[in-house]
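Re: that chain you flagged

S.,

Sorry for the slow reply, it's been a week of failed gels. I finally had a moment to sit down with the sequence you sent. For the record, here it is as I used it:
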Amino acid sequence: MIEIKGVNKSFSSNHVLKDVSFKFESGKTNLIIGASGSGKTTLIKCMVGLHQQDSGTISFDGRDFIELDKKEQRILRQDIGMLFQGGALFDYLTVKQNISFGLDMFTTMSQKDKDDRIAFCLNRVNLSNANDLYPSEISGGMIKRVAIARAIALKPRYLFCDEPNSGLDPQTAIIIDNLIQEITQEYNITTVVNTHDMNSVMEIGDNIAFISEGQLAWSGDKKSIMSSDCQVLNDFVFASQLFKKLKQ
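Prediction finished late last night. Pasting the structure tokens below so you have them in one place:
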């Protein structure tokens, strides 16, 4: 579980996050949703250590990141997997080499153990025969699946996904959503997904934080979101004609 309490973050005079508190639960897909500029990306960056909050706490299973020494912070970072918006694969490395990157950097595993782990991760995302392909030789959906395989290679306890369905067609997006949810439940990972895709919300929204103008405006799950009386949330959710029809 990741728990944030009273998190504030400003950039000069711009108060981006305003006293945000929320619990991201283990074994569930925890979604952060909100309009562009709402503060959700800043929140994610604070959680993974790219920004330091001005006040408040961010705890990983009771460990406050800021209070840890450098060695402890390094150990905690190894427990974090990251799925970047565009996949962020290294173009000059094969699929196998991309997945091996973190294993090479952070472990002392033998080559055989690395190969076994890579094979397991690729099999888990249904890409067993893609070892020697380069990113330019595979589709956008396959790139996202390779990125997921790389993110879970180090057996993370926490998985962060930044707009995982960006640029994907609806059918492929559903495959990625389901894969993220399956892995989360299978390995009891605390998964945090930053998204504005309402299809993802309705597919895998186990635990949802809605951020509006830097504040936590609503929280709940995919079932309760359709009957919320939070007007700013309704304006966001039912912006499309499709979800307006679902509301009726």
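What I noticed first: The longest strand covers residues 14-24.

Talk soon,
D.
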